[in-house]
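Backbone-to-sequence.
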């Protein structure tokens, strides 16, 4: 015989357990039952927060009770003014963005993942709260402004990363070199943007005044490093003592430099951190033959190799030959729709070379995958589409003949949360506050307005 129990008669422990397992929309609907239920759902509702502009950040600080910020574990925010609806930013004072970010970081001591997209550098005061973020493991720092007018200083970025006690994953995008660390780049060709006036960033207790990008390798807890659209020409990448044990390395190229220079910079970093790297994402070709010999390669543990859509397709075979010294098990290659035929052809050439070179050449390889990204400007006709289908069939048949697993398919788009591109924190969690959904309506707050932070 079944019995029914009213919600309000259940113990608080059971109510909390129910609330923590609800998805975003269900939790919000459930929180409207009554004030007591709303309070129970607060931790689930505020576990993951996304704020897409400085205006939204300031509104959040004005309306959300300070104790609610203690529940935030994932924070994804942008400091760029919101101009989409013609509204003027609440404050254009230079310290407005810095003060807002500082207030929210101080109020959120339980952060585990943080993505901060800045419209240029913020004030050095934002470094301070990172020293107290004991739970922060994943940090993404992106410059969403124009590098020439609003640069994000490498000194600020390195200081933040080195100050975070237990940082494991760091992702950087469009970071600008400091004139203090790269005076040789001033006034020479090609033009490389430089930051000036960042000498007031205080010395780090361990790194001292050496806050150049290569000093990231001295962060002992770091396991994953992603750097994109950033100049990597600092020679100290090859000489600085490495204190971390990187497992994943993802290096993009600098659009100010030539392909040859970018390749040299990439190889320098690969050689420095290679002994511990298990997974590597490659944007430039590799010409150094030292990587081809198993006994001397700087990448003795590399098992997963990813090749980005910006990699020169005609360099696939040479690069794979030069990386033959690593025990690569999985090769994945991304490309745009227009490049599918060329990519499949290049991979077939590589597999033909593997057959010619014998069983010792890439003997650990077990799979080859191709991920095809949609191209909004593609104007292919039916004949070109048929060519792509035939190219993928030939590649997969070749892989089957060599007993290699292979998948060729469209890339799955990630959920977008910031102004441009996918969320740096990855696919959205179910419990996420997106202030955009509120429009002109109040934020999902308690029935009684609390004090401003």
């Amino acid at each position: 015989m079944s019995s029914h129990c009213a919600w309000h008669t259940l113990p608080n422990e059971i109510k909390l357990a129910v609330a923590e397992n609800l998805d975003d929309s269900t939790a919000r609907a459930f929180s409207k039952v009554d004030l007591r239920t709303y309070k129970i759902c607060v931790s689930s509702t505020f576990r993951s927060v996304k704020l897409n502009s400085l205006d939204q950040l300031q509104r959040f600080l004005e309306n959300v009770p300070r104790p609610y910020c203690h529940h935030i574990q994932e924070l994804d925010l942008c400091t760029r003014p919101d101009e989409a609806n013609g509204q003027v930013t609440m404050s254009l004072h230079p310290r407005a963005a810095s003060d807002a970010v500082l207030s929210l970081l101080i109020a959120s001591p339980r952060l585990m993942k943080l993505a901060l997209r800045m419209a240029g550098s913020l004030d050095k005061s934002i470094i301070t709260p990172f020293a107290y973020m004991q739970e922060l493991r994943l940090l993404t720092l992106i410059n969403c402004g124009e590098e020439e007018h609003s640069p994000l200083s490498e000194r600020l970025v390195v200081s933040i990363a080195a100050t975070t006690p237990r940082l494991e994953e760091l992702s950087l995008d469009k970071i600008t070199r400091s004139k203090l660390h790269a005076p040789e780049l001033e006034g020479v060709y090609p033009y490389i943007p430089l930051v000036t006036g960042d000498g007031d960033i205080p010395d780090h207790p361990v790194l001292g005044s050496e806050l150049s990008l290569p000093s990231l390798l001295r962060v002992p807890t770091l396991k994953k490093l992603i750097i994109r659209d950033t100049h990597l020409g600092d020679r100290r990448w090859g000489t600085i003592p490495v204190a971390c044990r990187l497992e994943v390395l993802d290096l993009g190229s600098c659009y100010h430099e030539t392909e040859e220079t970018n390749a040299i910079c990439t190889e320098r970093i690969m050689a420095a951190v290679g002994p511990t790297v298990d997974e590597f994402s490659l944007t430039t070709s590799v010409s150094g033959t030292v990587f081809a010999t198993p006994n001397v390669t700087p990448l003795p543990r590399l098992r997963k190799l990813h090749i980005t859509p910006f990699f020169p397709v005609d360099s696939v075979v040479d690069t794979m030959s030069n990386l033959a010294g690593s025990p690569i098990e999985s090769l994945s290659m991304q490309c745009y729709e227009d490049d599918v035929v060329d990519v499949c052809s290049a991979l077939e050439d590589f597999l033909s070379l593997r057959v010619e070179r014998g069983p010792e050449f890439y003997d650990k390889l077990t799979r080859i995958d191709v991920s095809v990204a949609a191209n909004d400007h593609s104007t292919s006709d039916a004949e070109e589409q048929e060519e792509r289908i035939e190219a993928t069939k030939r590649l997969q048949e070749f892989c089957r003949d060599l007993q290699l697993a292979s998948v060729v398919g469209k890339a799955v788009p990630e959920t977008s949360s910031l102004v441009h591109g996918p969320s740096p924190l990855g696919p959205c969690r179910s419990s996420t506050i997106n202030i955009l959904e509120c429009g002109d309506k109040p934020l999902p707050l308690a029935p009684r307005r609390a004090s401003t932070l």
